[in-house]
Amino acid sequence: MKLIDSLVTQAAGIAAVRRDLHAHPELCFEEVRTADVVAGKLTEWGIPIHRGLGTTGVVGIVKNGTSNRAVGLRADMDALPVTELNTFAHASKHHGKMHACGHDGHTAMLLAAAQHLAKHRNFDGTVYLIFQPAEEGGGGAREMIKEGLFAQFPMDAVFGMHNWPGMKAGQFAVSPGPVMASGNKFYVNVIGKGGHAALPQTGIDPVPIACEIVQAFQTILTRKMKPTDSAVISVTTIHAGETNNVIPDNCEMTGTVRTFSIEVLDMIESRMRQIAEHICAAHDATCDFRFERYYPPTINTEAEANFARRVMGEIVGPENVLRQEAAMTSEDFAFMLQAKPGAYAFIGNGDGSHRDVHHGEGPCTLHNASYDFNDDLIPLGATCWVQLAEQFLKPGGAAP
């Protein structure tokens, strides 16, 4: 029996687990029930576990043979603070919380792979099954690493995978180099001097100063950055004043910056600070500028990305393994790729036609209240995980 056919036979049971997780979503660092479900299944299949890294993380350890080589396979577990619009039977039971990004499905695919790997152990070395908390803004990967993930569980490479709506089910995408952008926040408070709106000469109006700063930020992209580089600067909130006839004392702005390289990010942060402070000074105002880097760019190493591409091509055919178009979204798997060689790939989630009746009217896209993971991906995703592990740890050395 082919590997994928074998995994199809167990997919119904894993799909039930996935739907249970979907119905009981937990936000970052709160994945206690989810971690219990994962740990329970791994223990049931005879897989030793370690709990508590990153607060609620779970690591399963599957060993075979005598080799010291090891590979890590990672799935994220947390949900989003979204109120679900779906009303099918497995819709969220917790108002304001939802698996709107498919982490329930990622967990299910890795569980299906874990069950097969524990039963067959067709490899020489160790597979570390990494069930990570707090991807959605909490930096759970960073916290697991800080608390000893790679020190306690040394591995030669690590792989991650995310479902991608709009890409056909049965397709993968993986490429070397940057695949997701860095995630960064900025805060600018323009501090002027309030007064009567009919007497602007008596105050320092922070609102036009803020508008000038917003416009000037965009010149960083068009005049200070190489046209061959890519970046985004988005001012997403502006708050000032309380009424129509009063010039406010200050104007606050926040937003995000996305880049595919640290060098471009360094330049943008420096220029934004200079622009904000100098424009304020030119108008006799002052400025409080803060910049927070929360996720670095996700950059696949060449050998591991090409290895994953070859393995996926053997499963679905090379024509169904697409070049991975880099996205300006961010992903905390980036921290793992800073520490270890590896690759982050996409698996097609389809167009949404897989959803049960009583789904929401919105599209089946990531972070949408009508989203649901495609359970048909479970055996395919699990097959990919199993083949990556078995070929990476084949006798005689690593496939990359």
Automatic annotation (TrEMBL):
Family in the record: Belongs to the peptidase M20 family.
Cofactor stoichiometry and binding remark: The Mn(2+) ion enhances activity.
Xref: InterPro entries: Amidohydrolase (IPR017439), Bact_exopeptidase_dim_dom (IPR036264), Peptidase_M20 (IPR002933), Peptidase_M20_dimer (IPR011650)
Residues bound to Mn(2+): C101, H103, E136, H162, H367
Highest taxon, organism lineage: Bacteria
GO molecular function, one term: metal ion binding
Protein name as annotated: Amidohydrolase
PANTHER family: METALLOPEPTIDASE, PUTATIVE (AFU_ORTHOLOGUE AFUA_6G09600)-RELATED (PTHR11014:SF63), PEPTIDASE M20 FAMILY MEMBER (PTHR11014)
Origin organism lineage: Bacteria, Pseudomonadati, Pseudomonadota, Betaproteobacteria, Burkholderiales
Peptidase M20 dimerisation domain location: 186-281
UniProt keywords, alphabetically: Hydrolase, Manganese, Metal-binding
The protein's required cofactors: Mn(2+)
